[in-house]
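Figure 2 data, in text form.
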Amino acid sequence: MSLLPISTVLFLFVFFSVPSSPFIAAADDLPTAYSLLQSYNFPVGILPKGIVSYDLDESTGKFHAYFNNSCSFALQGSYQLDYKSTISGLISENKITKLTGVKVKVLFLWLNIVEVTRNGDELEFSVGITSANFAIDEFYESPQCGCGFDCNSISENLGRNPFVSSV
């Protein structure tokens, strides 16, 4: 048995290690998860702030989005939402299906949101047995984990002791 020359081994290693894609993008060159949502005709506000990374198989639409931790918040006068540290599903133009990792509290029940569909200027969120429609303009801004859209009032109340009078 003869050994291959080191130059041949190096060539084979480099040749088979380099991805076959003609364009190799650095991680910094990837679009954000929020701009990726927009490319599928969804507003950024269906994802809260805090996505640290994502992966997408463009041929199938299968995606994963990652937070550092789980993310929960309440929307004033509305629903409480909970995002696990990893959410996944299938994305295509105007539709997210097989969604996992997102729950909404309705009355006293936690229900998994399994599908999001854009119909013109409305978004339909399905929990399987039922769905709810919302105007798309309610989702142009991303909520923040912990406080949703009401983060200013939380920061204003920090440091105040409700049992101490200021008079």
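Caption note: The radius of gyration is 22 Å.
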